[in-house]
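Quick note —
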Amino acid sequence: MFRNARSEKSFVCSAQIWRSPGCSGKIPFMAQKISIVIPVFNEEESLPGLITQLQQTGSEFEIIFVDDCSTDGSPEILASTGFRVIRHDLNTGYGSALKTGIRAASGDLIAIIDSDGQHKVSELAKLFAETSGHDMVVGQRGSGGSVLRRPGKFLLKLFAGYLSGRKIPDLNSGMRVFRRDFILRCLPLLPDGFSFTTTVTMAALVDGFRVRYVPVEVEARTSGHSRVGMFRDGLSTLYLILKMMIFFNPLKVFLPTSVLFFMLAGVDLIYEWYHISYQIPDSFILLFLAGMNFFFFGVLADMLATMRKWR
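Predicted structure written out below.
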């Protein structure tokens, strides 16, 4: 059973060994403090199963549920578990709930999982086994999910891979394990909405942190419904990726844009000069100046990003 998280004792993994189906051998946790943060918003149907899984692990962890102002029976279910529960007075978003839990966690390793029943608690063992030498370990899901969302997610993953210069097997998986110092450093950059996981992925990859992907099994959602809007949250995530890349690696954005405007200016000049009149057109000047602006903005932003890394 879990020790009550409200006690002031340190949450150090015991000498017991956590076995996980599909994970060969035994996994010693080497007496590291481990915290598991679980955001909750109106998940009364899936919470009992998740709580049962947590109680069956046979190891001791700090469990922190963050209730993001649920309006169903979730608060009553959480209150009866004996685990630590933090409740928001207002619904502030998935990312905000994670930030609250992470700041409150005392573990050297901080894991996050969703409360909708899709994540198997036992699969966390695979992630913990790979934490040595890595700042973040991500549970890589299969190719399931809504058929309508797959094209958008695929394009979004391609775009993120180009900007980060890395192949990203799973951009926004909600099952992860962080080293405490890494995630606390990233928190000020991370949004309060569903793009939390996407943004932390980009921040880690672009800034040179060590990231490991581990395949995990997930269950199909059997109750409730996803609150991620395909168009609203897709466009929001795309904007956040672009913003993060301007912050971390701006030349990836500004340099290609500058080259594009220079090429358009050149094509416009050739066409106008030989087919209309032997003069430099105003459109060429505008396109050329736009290319120059993007180039120098990129250089300036890159200098600011370099100064941030030095600091």
